[in-house]
Every structure is written in C-alpha cells, then in structure tokens.
Write a structure and sequence with these properties.
Largest sheet: 7 strands, mixed
Distance between the termini: 20 Å
Radius of gyration: 20 Å
Structural class: alpha/beta
Number of strands: 17
CATH class of the largest domain: Alpha Beta
Helix content: 25-40%
Order of helices and strands: EEEHEEEHEEEHHEHEHEHEHEHEHEHE
CATH architecture of the largest domain: Alpha-Beta Complex
Number of helices: 11
CATH superfamily of the largest domain: Medium-chain alcohol dehydrogenases, catalytic domain
C-alpha cells in the first residue's frame, strides 16, 4: 500500500490517501521517496488548469529517493541506490525519437502526474530509464527541483550549442531563472538578468549575473539592442517580445521554456534580416539529465530551496501560490 496526499477535487486541500499500486512491471522501479519538490505545474494539475487532471490526484514530479524494488529486467539500478524522477516516467523506446535517444520527445510518453499518481507519497513508480542515479556531491534535499526546473533550463544549453563565449540573458529570476543564472555562469557565458525587482539586485548578482537590466524599462532594452546571442525566457506572462527580439545579435535566439498562455507575436522582417530564431523546448532526456547532474556536482550548483514536512503540504502549496517561495519549495517525506 502506498501512502500519499491527494486532491480529491480541484481547488481543495490535499488529504491523506492510500492506494494499491498492483504488481511491479518487469522494467519498472519503485522509489522510496525522501524529498519531492513542488512545482507550478503541480499547482496547474491540482487545480485542473490544463483540463487533463483526474481525481484523486497525487501530484509531485521532482522526486528524490532510493530504489525500494525493481523489476526482473532492470539491471542498471540497484536496490538502495539514490535516484531522481521528473516530469516523464515512461516512453515507448521504439519510435524514431526514442531510437535517437530523445525519450523526452516521444509522442506517447507517460507523465508522472498525468493519469497516474506522483511523488507526494512515500513511494512512486516509473520505468527504470527515467530513474536517474544521483552522482556523489549532490545534496538530496535540494536535488528534486533539478529534475524539472533544472533540466528545463539546462536542456537548451545542450540542444542549441550555447558557447562559453556567448552573451546570454535570462528573463524572470524565479524558480527556473535562478538556476539558469547559475548554470550559465559556470558554463562560461557573459550573463544578463532581466528583472523588474531592484531589491533583488545583490542576490541576482550572487547567483551569477554580470549585468541586470530592468525588464519593464523600454529605454534599458533599447540600450542593449543587438548585443545578445541567446535569451532564455522562463516567465509565463506576455511581454514586449518585439523589444526582446531587438536585443539579439544576428543569428540570435529567443528561447521559451515558460508556458506563456497567449501567442507570441513577433514581426517576420527583423527575424529574416537578422536570421534570428524563436524556439521552445521541454525537459531533457535521461542522458541530458545525467549530464546536468554531473555538471552540478562538478561546479557545486544547487537550487535554493525551502523545506516543509510532507504533513504540511497544504501550507507549502499556499506559500508557493502566494509568491513567497525563495526559490523552490521541497517536501521532506523521509530522511
């Protein structure tokens, strides 16, 4: 029996919940959860913002724990090994994208909290390919957010060959953006932070930013026109996208990982003349996730987290919804 906290309906507090998971599949693992981050995607699923939630719903897709059991065909993981699990929990492993190693682009992939129960629980299951071992030197209590927010901002660096000589900017210095600054500084880039909160300036510089530009100041954006190679947008609100495209150099890229609810309108002619690009990406593959974890261990990079015991999950959710998180909220399930 798995013991969890579940929403029984949209916009209701989470309550203790038990379920029987059934037999463990031959290629699956069961993870004894130690820590689980709370992401804005969890909130969207709990409140059915995306119209695909099924109740009772056990959220949680930033899991860190130990392998408690494994299927008979799982050879690369050992019982007791520390692993992490993110948004994806299974892929078909036979389509063209899976055959290329892009399991995250599988069109039939399984998502950890969509149509199944996630990590706000003492146990959670997944296909063994998506249980990623943690290298030595990674803090367990802060590792969970790396499996969602962390890989979301790390994946574009790999996919689009961001170079150490590039001038890169991050829009939105929150749960995703603060990790992006740390990655980019260690990557060797010249890093600019777009932020509207002047009170966070010292903190943003400590995270890795060389420069800070007021994201609400059109004149400040105009002053850096044509200077950036890559912009990573982590926000989920509409912005003056034309102004941001104007800060890019020729062949520059505006890359979106925040789920902006409205279409992103940019003029074609400046993109054509400057050979500029607008793109987006999901979380990374298991291989890219492993590379990210090794990079974090090498450079001692970790998200800034606030811990709550799982019994206070509703307080933790309210803290996140109120915009008070600095910068990721993590539930402690077991030590």
């Amino acid at each position: 029996m798995i013991h969890a906290y579940a929403a029984l309906a949209p916009n209701t507090p989470l309550k203790p919940f038990e379920y029987e998971p059934g037999p463990l599949g031959p290629e699956d693992v069961e993870i004894a959860v130690q820590y689980c981050g709370i992401c804005h995607s969890d909130l969207s699923m709990l409140h059915n913002h995306w119209q695909m939630s099924a109740y009772p719903l056990v959220a949680g897709h930033e899991v860190v724990g130990r392998v408690a059991a494994k299927g008979e065909r799982v050879a690369h993981l050992a019982v007791g090994q520390t692993v992490g699990l993110g948004w994806f929990s299974r892929s078909c492993r036979s389509c063209e994208f899976c055959n290329d190693g892009d399991f995250n682009l599988c069109t039939t992939n399984e998502q950890t909290i969509v149509g199944r129960h996630g990590g706000f629980a003492d146990r959670v299951r997944c296909h063994a390919a998506w249980a990623t071992p943690l290298p030595a030197g990674i803090s367990l209590e802060s590792a969970g957010p790396l499996f969602c927010g962390g890989i979301t901002v790390f994946n574009p660096l790999v996919q689009f060959d961001v170079r150490p000589t590039d001038r890169v900017a991050v829009i939105g210095i929150g749960g995703l953006g603060h990790m992006a600054l740390r990655f980019l500084r260690a990557w060797g880039c010249e890093v600019t932070a777009f932020s509207s909160n002047a009170a966070k300036a010292d903190e943003i510089r400590a995270m890795g930013a060389h420069h800070i530009v007021d994201s609400r100041d059109a004149n400040a954006l105009a002053k850096i026109a044509g200077s950036l190679d890559f912009i990573l947008s982590t926000v989920n609100v509409p912005l003056n996208w034309e102004a941001y495209m104007g800060t890019l150099r020729p062949r520059g890229r505006l890359h979106v990982v925040g789920a902006v609810p409205e279409p992103i309108g940019v003029a074609a002619f400046p993109m054509i003349v400057g050979q500029k690009q607008l793109s987006g990406s999901p979380l990374g593959s298991p291989n890219t996730t492993r590379r990210m974890l090794d990079f974090c261990a090498r450079h001692q990079i970790a998200p800034t987290v606030e811990l709550f015991p799982i019994a206070k999950v509703n307080e933790a959710i309210a803290h996140l919804e109120a915009g008070k998180a600095r910068y990721r909220v993590v539930l402690q399930v077991a030590k």
